[in-house]
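Quick one, tokens below. Sequence please?
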């Protein structure tokens, strides 16, 4: 069910919002023990919100745009009075004293909060296996991961535990799990959506965005959460178009660029490549012009990212020292001992690994060789995109090199795990909008995602192209059974 069909059900009084919310919680309570997509739920408050919307309907009052839409929030986004744990021992008991700008805009638009979803600890991971609350399962195959770090958000949408979820994307953490779970995931232009209330991982890369069942739903949420925010100096002061108005436009003569380096990479699974190239043929039949383009530094993005992101993370996570808030060790003899033990006990292995990498890259004598050089390569990657957009309107790649892998496959091989972000990190490094949509399935029946990348603030172009493809391909109609 998408937003439009739900509105019709509510408008025709075939179902009340309270009944809808109760039905969803029954499903969560009976089945989420298998998936583990939620860290906590907010049922009592959700029922109160639903009753409020029902009263508005009963009194025939004007409804806010997202009235009654049940939404889940990734647990690294602050929600006032609710746990915000980042799936870490460090923040296990932290209750946010304020509301993030993005979630605040959703509640003002009438959306209903169902709870907080699972993630890799501090959003550092590609499989949702590093959470202290346990691994999330992929609804298509519970032996497999849902992707990460927004794995709980993607899994909850795919399983029908919400109609939409909010995630964060630092190097692909919305798009990669969306691809693995067969749903839609959108990373907006950097600065399009406020980061106020998002627990910082890598501040120059982080971006909040929606995970939904359909492209039109993603367009609605993006419109709702976008716009200037005085609390976030990186948030752009640009008009926000109503993205729904740009859907369903013809894509005849739309120039779509195929990034040559993506399709030639040896790590690209043959079934993924075949499915995406078949989708390219569908775009051709819809009138789009397909043009091969080169982005020579595209595949350097993964190495660049894993210098810049850990460096920024090491600075951002320095605030968790056991003094003001967060986990504090019980046994210490002095301030230094308390800080080191609190961080050693409070952070998991992956978070500690990235802090160490980042601290090393920023250390005296090494910052020129690593961090500053990575920033130079980042500029070259952005230049490649700029040159490509002189020839085409949007770019097309697979979202991920593979489909969802088995739990534990990379438990002892973090470098191979990092490669699952190979095709998504360049958009973050360049600050560009990108969307993942389902385009097919592999021989195991697992979803395959296709990625469309747009130029700065051109979300409308990728949303329209994605919507036209979605309607034509009808891939989204197939849902997981678990």
């Amino acid at each position: 069910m998408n937003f439009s069909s739900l509105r019709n059900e509510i408008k025709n009084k075939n179902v009340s919002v309270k009944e809808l919310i109760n039905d969803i919680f029954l499903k969560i309570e009976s089945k989420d023990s298998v998936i583990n997509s939620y860290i906590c739920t907010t049922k009592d408050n959700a029922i109160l919100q639903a009753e409020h919307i029902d009263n508005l309907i009963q009194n025939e009052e004007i409804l806010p745009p997202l009235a009654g839409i049940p939404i889940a929030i990734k647990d690294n986004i602050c929600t006032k009075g609710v746990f915000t744990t980042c799936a870490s021992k460090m923040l296990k008991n932290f209750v946010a004293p304020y509301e993030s700008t993005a979630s605040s805009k959703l509640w003002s638009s009438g959306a209903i909060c169902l709870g907080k979803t699972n993630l890799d600890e501090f959003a550092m991971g590609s499989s949702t296996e590093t959470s202290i609350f346990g691994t999330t399962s992929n609804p298509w195959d519970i032996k497999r991961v849902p992707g990460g770090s927004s794995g709980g958000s993607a899994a909850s949408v795919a399983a029908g535990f919400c109609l939409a979820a909010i995630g964060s994307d630092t190097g692909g953490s919305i798009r990669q799990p969306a691809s693995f779970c067969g749903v839609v995931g959108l990373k907006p232009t950097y600065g399009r959506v406020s980061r106020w209330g998002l627990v910082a991982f890598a501040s120059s890369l982080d971006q909040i965005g929606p995970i939904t069942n359909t492209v039109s739903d993603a367009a609605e949420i993006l419109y709702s959460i976008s716009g200037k925010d005085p609390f976030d100096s990186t948030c752009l002061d640009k008009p926000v178009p109503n993205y729904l108005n740009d859907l369903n436009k013809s894509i005849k003569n739309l120039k779509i660029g195929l990034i040559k380096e993506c399709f030639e990479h040896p790590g690209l699974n043959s079934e993924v490549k075949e499915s995406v190239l078949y989708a390219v043929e569908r775009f051709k039949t819809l009138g789009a012009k397909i043009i091969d383009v080169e982005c020579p530094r595209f595949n350097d993005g993964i190495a660049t990212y894993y210098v810049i992101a850990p460096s920024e993370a090491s600075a951002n996570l320095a605030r968790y020292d056991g003094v003001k808030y967060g986990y504090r060790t019980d046994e210490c003899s002095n301030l230094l001992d308390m800080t080191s033990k609190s961080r050693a006990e409070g952070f998991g292995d992956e978070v500690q690994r990235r802090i160490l990498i980042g601290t090393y890259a920023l250390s005296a004598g090494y910052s020129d060789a690593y961090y500053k050089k990575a920033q130079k390569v980042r500029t070259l990657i952005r230049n490649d995109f700029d040159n490509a957009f002189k020839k085409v309107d949007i770019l097309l790649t697979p979202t991920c090199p593979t489909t969802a892998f088995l739990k534990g496959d990379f438990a002892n091989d973090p470098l191979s795990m990092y490669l699952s972000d190979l095709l998504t990190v360049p958009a973050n490094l360049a600050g560009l909008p990108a969307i993942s949509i389902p385009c097919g399935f592999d021989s195991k029946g697992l979803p395959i995602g296709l990625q469309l990348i747009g130029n700065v603030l051109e979300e409308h172009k990728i949303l329209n192209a994605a919507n036209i493809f979605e309607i034509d391909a009808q891939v989204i109609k197939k849902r997981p059974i678990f």
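The chain has 16 helices and eleven strands. The mean pLDDT is 96.
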